[in-house]
Design goal:
The protein is mainly α. It has a single domain (11-292), classed as Farnesyl Diphosphate Synthase (Orthogonal Bundle), CATH 1.10.600. Helix content is 76%, strand content 0%. It has 13 helices and no strands. The chain has helices at residues 11-18, 24-36, 45-70, 72-78, 93-112, 114-131, 141-165, 171-190, 196-201, 207-211, 213-237, 241-263, 265-292. Helix 5 (93-112) runs antiparallel to helix 6 (114-131).
């Protein structure tokens, strides 16, 4: 009697499932949190590096595995070449990876302290309810984009500051983290333009499906822009005029790019993601440096 060997995914397919390219956003936000804390890295490098590992290769990677597992039927329509629908991640391995990465993420977060563990727990819960039934927040673009924006920007920023301070971060740090999370809601809308047909067929009410591509594009620009204007105003009120001016200048640059994006939202969403979003994250760093420098 012969038995069929257990199919195990190749390392390359696993890496593709965890999507390293998506790790940049939370790792950058974590670094902004570190900078905004005002605490020097002397003697705290191991904590900072562990936090970056937690933000990107662990929590963010977990969210990617969870999303791909519960999106496998949609991906079979929109992107059948992905690891799970293509069969390169066989059987229930996608689910096993998602669960395993969740446990490892919680273990690392616990080592970094209670505030970090709490933030990681919130992020992981959002990652699961974003994709998994019965809540499946991604079925509605309003809720889903809010959850992803918080996980990609706000929570990593908060975590970076909390790791360095070993305490609850300053209220100004939390405010900027929340504002950039709100702006990220618009960035998440950009990702939905590529899958309008599949989302509509599968009952996923992304904002381009709900509002139409033109209206969703205008809303995305507004949601990206207003929080940055609020950041510039806050920095000005805190006595950081040069940093406020830099954030405003970067926002003006995004405004020019937005005009081109709005002329062809579906065709230029990916283009704007690679251009306007760069200016967005540079503004994040400018705001973080402003807090590091102190102020009223």
């Amino acid at each position: 009697m012969t038995t069929t060997p257990l199919a195990v995914p190749a390392p390359r397919a696993l890496l593709e499932l965890l999507k390293p390219i998506t790790w940049f956003a939370p790792m950058w936000a974590f670094a902004c949190g570190v900078v905004s804390s005002g605490v020097g890295l002397q003697g705290r490098w191991p904590l900072a590096l562990a936090g970056i590992l937690l933000a990107g290769p662990l929590v963010c990677a977990t969210s990617q595995a969870v999303n791909d597992w519960f999106d496998r039927h949609v991906d079979a329509i929109n992107e059948p070449q992905r690891p799970i629908p293509s069969g390169r991640i066989p059987g229930r391995w996608g689910l096993y990876v998602a669960a395993g990465w969740t446990l490892v993420s919680l273990a690392v977060a616990a080592l970094l302290g209670p505030w970090i563990l709490g933030a990681a727990l919130v992020g992981l819960v959002l990652a699961w309810i974003y994709s998994a039934p019965p809540l499946r927040l991604k079925r509605n673009g309003w809720w889903g984009n809010t959850a992803v924006g918080l996980c990609y920007e706000g929570l990593p920023w908060f975590t970076g500051a909390a790791v360095m301070a070993a305490a609850l971060p300053d209220a100004r740090v939390i405010l900027l983290a929340l504002l950039y999370s709100l702006g990220a809601h618009g960035i998440m809308t950009l990702n939905d333009f590529k899958s309008v047909e599949g989302d509509r067929r599968m009952g996923i009410r992304s904002l381009p499906v709900q509002l139409g591509t033109a209206s969703a594009a205008r809303l995305a620009c507004l949601v990206m822009g207003l929080p940055q204007a609020a950041v510039a105003a806050a920095l000005l009120a805190w006595g950081r005029p040069w940093h406020a001016g830099l954030v405003a200048l970067l926002l003006a640059g995004q405004g020019l790019l937005m005009r081109r994006f709005l002329a062809d939202p579906r065709g230029r969403a990916a283009w704007y993601n690679g251009t306007g979003t760069l200016l967005y994250v540079l503004g994040m760093l400018a705001a973080a440096v402003a807090l590091r420098g102190g102020g009223a």
